[in-house]
User: What shape does this take?
Amino acid sequence: MEGLLGGFVAILSPETLFFCFVGALVGTLIGVLPGLGPTATIAILLPLTIGLDPVTAIVMIAGIYYGASYGGSTTAILVNIPGEAQSVVTCIDGYRMAQQGRAGPAIGIAALGSFIAGTLGAIAIALISMPLISFAVRFGPPEYFALMLLGFIVLLVLARGSVVRSMIMIMTGLLLSMVGQDVITGEVRYAFGVPQLVDGISIVTISMGIFGLGEVFFNLERLAHRSVQTVPVKQILPSRDEWKASAGPIARGSVLGFLVGLLPGGGATLASFVSYALEKRIAKDPSRFGKGAIEGVAGPEASNNAGATGSFIPLLTFGLPGNPVTAILLGALILYGVTPGPLMIQTNPEIFWGVVASMYVGNVMLLALNLPLVGLWVQLLRVPYRYLYAPLILFMIIGAYSINNSVFDIGALLFFGVVGYLLRKLRFDSAPLILAFVLGGPIETNLRQTLMLGRGSWEYVLDRPIALTIFTIAFIVAILPMFGFVRKGLKQARAVNEL
Amino acid sequence: MSRTRDLIAGSSFAALGAAGIALASHLPMGSMRLPGAGAMPIVLSTALAVLSLVLIWRTLAGRAPELEDTDGPVDTFGNARVALAAVLIVAYAAVLSWLGFFLATSVLMVLLFMIGAKRPLSLPPVLAGVAVTGVAWALFVLALDVRLPVGAIWR
Assistant: This one.
């Protein structure tokens, strides 16, 4: 707790709070736009943090993230358009509530549930990070390789859509991570004689391109169909009965979401689906779900926020991102000269605890700022997209240029923007590609070091109980879908996921 | 439509895999004891090519799941709009160092706004373009101290 208090001290300066406020504001501003989810919003707004000190930048990113998530929920409830997969579940009952004239309580419970879950999540991170870090320092190359392999297997088992398509995305991401100098031998790979490629491709450029510019291009070809109809928002605060009905789902969603967030490939999306399924299963009258049940908004919204918070644990303790948002955050941290992992708490304690504290401050800011401004967000939803795409493109261009003060990066941004646009049109989920891109370097290095340590033999791993345990879990997870009951469950989960 | 998309995707990724193998073939492969710089790229490229062929085969055999069209309709000139935006960004990157941020960005913004405007040849896109450039310059250069090119022609 002492460290967490230190984190609060580090971020509770007027300047940092101001940037957190700006982050939450512009995060909501962009996140509320139909079609732009939290990942795209962070990718688009990352340039705003350039020039700030690392702690302030991270706090601002937290503000952007929470603002974007909240904005996405608002859009899901008011116009039935989920910005990202994590808001899909909110659409089901949230939009029905809005149609029944209960848009205010739906938005209110989404924000309050998220705030409660985010607060509990931040405390849980503070409590379990230290024991996990003590465990993580015992990890060597075989353990890291096993952990990353487990992450990819879980990702494939839970993948949306076809497994073959997800594997293609993973291989492409890993292959893209090979561009540049090999860290072990110094050989340059896939650089085509271009000096800027010797250091590899920047995670920030690839994220902004694929998630940000690709999404803007995709929406740009549908300008005529981007007008939305919203419903009026009256009373925001839920009634006593609505609170009573939501308390249980929020509590269960917070715990469940946090645990799901710890899984590689987990995070907000999976957490919201699991919470919805749980609430529907234990409800006295499951038939209310899908017809405007407030539990169907409270549980998943709390769960996706807790899941998002929980997904920071693998990043902060092992240095391994579990979803695209944490992958972009990893890129941002590296950009600021910070390497997440077990040693981060020693080398950059103010940033480690600053990240944890920023989750809480981001949530407070969100609550204080966004509930009173809900009328503004509703108005913003009515702004035609034709006025918005050009500034969004400019933000990303400035962000790409600022990384190395080079126009080459603008070209790289455009290239990945076109790739992201084409992938979207060809129905490929880009999330596995970004995760694989981020993990490609570490997975290769750890695999090669494992082989070198074992002199080319895997028997060496048998003497490493942690690595052996993780490999065994990975094997079990990989063969689980072969069993009928698991296959059936996954099929149902994917069907809901494809809604 | 889904079938055509899968075939295009499968062929593109198969070509990428093949190119990856060809480009990595001159790199040292090493051994199991000491893997070289080319080992991982070759393995990944081969896996990518094989998976792409599996996608093509499943599509041709009618075993690939049919994907529902949830994207919504594309505008009449939607594709042209995207292509034009991409060309404008290329041109912008080419002249940025020469014209400088303010002038190059103003032109880019005006043209980008024109692409999506209901009446492209009117005053609003011009005003919006210049205004957005001014706000971006104030935000990034004045407030956030980001260094943006001044332009060779102004020196």
Remarks:
- The first helix of chain A runs from residue 2 to 11.
